[in-house]
Amino acid sequence: MQWTALSVFIAFFVLVTVVGFLAARWRRGSLDSIEEWGLAGRRFGTLVTWFLVGGDFYTAYTFIAVPALMYGAGALAFYAVPYTIVVYPIFFLILPRLWSVCKKHGYVTAADYVAGRFGDRWLALAVAVTGIVAVMPYIALQLAGMQAVISAMGLQGEWPLIVAFVVLALYTLTSGLRAPALIAIVKDLMIYITVIVAVVVIPIKLGGFHRMFAVAQTALATHNPPGALILPNQSATLYATLALGSALAAYVYPHTLTGIFSADSRRTIKKNMALLPAYTFGLGLITLLGLMALAVGIHTSNTNQAVPLLFLKEFPGWFAGFAFAAIAIGALVPAAIMSIAASNLFTRNIYRAFFHKQSSEKHEANVAKVVSLLVKVGALVFILGFPQQYAISLQQVGGILILQTVPALVFTLYTGWFHRRALLIGWLVGILYGIYMWGSTGYKSTTYAIHWFGASVSAYAGIWALILNIVVTVVLTLVFRAAKVYNGVDQTIASDYGPNA
Amino acid sequence: MNQVGEKRRSRWWYLLLLLPLVGTLIPPIYSSETPELWGIPFFYWYQMLWVIISSVITLIVYAITKNE
Question: Which InterPro entries does this one have (chain B) (predicted)?
């Protein structure tokens, strides 16, 4: 048992819990309305939005899963860097339009937007269900990250994880989106300190970057299958599609949109897209921790343990405890945002749209609060039911699903040409094909090879599914338009998407 | 009339945002060990450099289009 690390860890965890409960009093609004509980009243400015959206990116994904892949497979893991590079220019182009139309019409979720754009609650249902299911493996990834640091400190069993999640659930219930927003600020300061110390101290101890990379390369070559320090050319397509697919998925993930919708203006969003790459730089450095673990000779078959073991080996116990607290809190913040986003979707687009049309605002907010608990249970199903070689696969599985909502959520911002039935069928085909590809690997990998005239191209299954989805959507739109099939009533007008909405 | 023309021109600036995609999504451009920088292989420092370039590009486009 690592007592020093554990004491420091618990102290910071308690501190953050107190912050989470106090958050309810911050910029007070009536937490009985879903716009207040779930979007904090759309009042966050540049700085808070920066921390909040950053909190969506700096997660257990960053600190545990990406370095774990680096530790096991090498250069391929670095796709997280181009992913978080291209995501912001793409966001910059698309998100202001979505923000404007949602603000104008009071949409709380992406599915609200689809419902309004097409007057179609079934297409909205497809978007909502996809969002809810897709965040579950992503929340599961956060659980895996927390488990990695907790067990590194010598605590065995499931109960520490359960305690952490009960705490999370309670302050999500009482404070809504204000809790993760406020905690994100504390968490980021802790993470920046950890990262800076780690990337300065460890390479010095190892005798410089050149030697660190050389030793890591030797270690990677002994892995089965062997890892590579430099990306081999046959992995180029996989690397690029993972980066692009993750970036597009990030845009349609409900928790990202929750962060964006709570911003107070278009300008806040645009400015953030230039400022958020600061997180990418941190992420790139953190990814290298996987190589550092190899270089210092950490041996573990559970790759998630690579970074925690590195910290325990290279740092005094109190600092390892501090870093572990940063990681665990870094898992709690996105988990909270994700469960809030999923419950907003359930309440607005399933519960209200299909079961309880006349529900009051207070009743809606209460339903959302309960569902935020159920979503966390769904995450447990993923982590227990589909064990992955690398935790990062959990995020990629969610990505395969959520990517299939790209045509309905991105393309329709620019044109009213697409037919709602075509979008629905395209979505279904994409989902089924994506699950088929994932299943064909025994639910173990999200990489799928397509054979085409004797050539074989391996790429991220999410992208293959999205391509098929787009083809089906375009072809069927042509058919339905030619047949003059009714395309619903559009609540929005062209100017709703612009700066003067 | 003048305002419309100005708006058209500022649209072109958005194309700058595609540069980071071109720079980072074609791995054969940068998947090599050399040239090293401070002992860091090209593959790694090239992509980290694009974090900064991409941020600067986005900042420029923001400054030009912030009223839209």
Answer: DUF3311
